[in-house]
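User: Sorry, folds how?
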Amino acid sequence: MNFFKKIICCSQLLLILNTPMASACQLTFATPLIEPHFWESQNQYQGIAVDFLNLLAAKSGCAISYQAKPWKRVMHEMQQGKVDLTIGFYAANRESFARYSHSEFGEYAFYLFTRADVEPVTDIKTLFTEKKRVLFLKNWFLGKLKPEIESEPKFAMPIDSIKQGIKLLLNDRAYAMLSPKTNALYSFKKMRVTEQIIINSDKLEALNQYLIFSKASVSDEVYQRLDSAMTQIIDSGEMQRILRSYTHLKP
């Protein structure tokens, strides 16, 4: 091999070595479709999770692709290493196949929402005692509020979407709607009812969410790199700016 060929080979090797984990950091994120966190429009995935993960990819040097899948399938494929990342609540039974970020992705906080012209809300039980109908999102995880809602089926009305709930509230078909804050505020902004529907209770339940990593497919080095980048995003306020961009609240 002559001198010039040696230089070319060495240059190519240095280029490969200096490419930030080009082959070792190709990750797949999967989660169910739900606005404003993750949805598809014009063959592109959008939402809070996508904005956050695109920023995480840029800071960590990893490439992240997206898939929409039912939650049970996401968990099953994380055990197999077919899905590398998702976002969810802590559960001890997942620790055999998953690791959690040290920083919290966000808070899944429930409030009661009403029309702006009604009396302040105290709590769900008081509304039931006063025979007032409370809407709740069917098939959504309610945490400790689930037994409270199920205790009074006559006045607890399941709904398929926040959009449906907004229409029922505005038509005086229900008194209050139980919903996670970010989801509700996003829908109010989208439907242009931010002056008509308000938060009208204290926080009733809050569940912390985390970035979850598959132990089967995400190495210790990649986990540490992404976990560190995520902490930087949270501490710098960039995550809060992403969340606020989906609501009518000002930064």
About this structure: The first strand starts at residue 26 and ends at 31. The chain has two domains: 3-106+207-244, 108-206. DSSP finds nine helices and twelve strands in the chain.
